[in-house]
Amino acid sequence: MRNSPTTPGTPTTWRLRVRLDDRPGALARVATRLAARDCNVLALTVLPVPGGVVDEIVVRTGPGHAPADLVDDIRAEGGRCLGIARADTRHLVDHTTAALRVTAAALRDPAAVADAVRTVLDADSVTIVDTATGFGDQNDHRVVLPLTDDLTVVARRGWAPFTEVELARVAALSEALVAGDVTAPTAVITGTGAGIVLRPGTPADADAVNDLHSRCSAQTLFTRYHAGLRTLPRRWLHRLLQPPRGTTLLALCGTEVVAMAQLIRTNDPAEAEISVLVEDSWQRQGLGTAMITRLGVLGRAAGHRRMIAWCMPAEAGFTRAANAAGLPVAVRREDDLLRVAISVDAPERTAESSETAAA
């Protein structure tokens, strides 16, 4: 906890992050205890976290009350104070309004990106560092967000850990900053909080993509290529990175490629074929979903209405990731394969959803 000295007899405003038992009336009982100390609750925000919620309370204390008194009241009701810090008028502004304002400022002036991240995350400090220099490990109090191939944003907050909701907010900020250019690199946050850059592949990525394949298990490679590959033929690399009828999307953690996906035009202008390869140790963290979502944006920009994937009947990972992307998914069996159709065009969504129901 980060506390500042108070002057006796002077009212002080504090921000508290509180984890309470999931029982009816728990928050009301805390508010009643605070009221008994002549404290005034000025704002309340509920932040969902795995297994429950964290309540952020902005409270003005009565004269002579120390922050330790507030912590004691929370503990008396079975709660846990995750952090407490001085508050000011910024914390009484509607968070959505503040986020929209700083996003607009960052769109007008790239130099305002650090301030935007600071506001959205309510971080103590935000620095932009050269990716090649390194920036330490990510943890609950440090967020690492790739900004470009060369630059990374590092945000820190000492008084309380970052929540998944806040990580989602800063990921949305990153998406907004690149919305004007669908081919520009974009950043995503995985389920474990790692920062990943998604960008198109280039011939210079050949060695990194080859290393990705060497780290993948035989099962993962078979799921992607439907063939018993152990190593990737070198002659395939150029075609993988610059397919003549489509695009290749890479996911990078620092300089290491940890996943790749392709979108290839078919003879039907409305359709493009999609494929995804995620390194074993990065699976089930949302990377496949993020790449499908991004390829959906690229496919829609290219005029496609559907993305089609061909999967083995026993493969559930791709369909699960596609459903998690929030796009309408239709699955049907053709011969010995599953045809997974993902709608990326609004007028087609009703038809795709009906096909799913029929299946």
Automatic annotation (TrEMBL):
PANTHER family: AMINOALKYLPHOSPHONATE N-ACETYLTRANSFERASE-RELATED-RELATED. This is ACT domain-containing protein. SUPFAM superfamilies: ACT-like, Acyl-CoA N-acyltransferases (Nat). Residues 196-345 form the N-acetyltransferase domain. It comes from Actinokineospora auranticolor. Residues 15-89 form the ACT domain. Pfam families: Acetyltransf_1, ACT. InterPro entries: ACT-like_dom_sf (IPR045865), ACT_dom (IPR002912), Acyl_CoA_acyltransferase (IPR016181), Bact_Acetyltransf (IPR050832), GNAT_dom (IPR000182). GO terms for molecular function: acyltransferase activity, transferring groups other than amino-acyl groups. It comes from the Bacteria. The keyword Transferase applies. Keywords: Acyltransferase, Transferase.
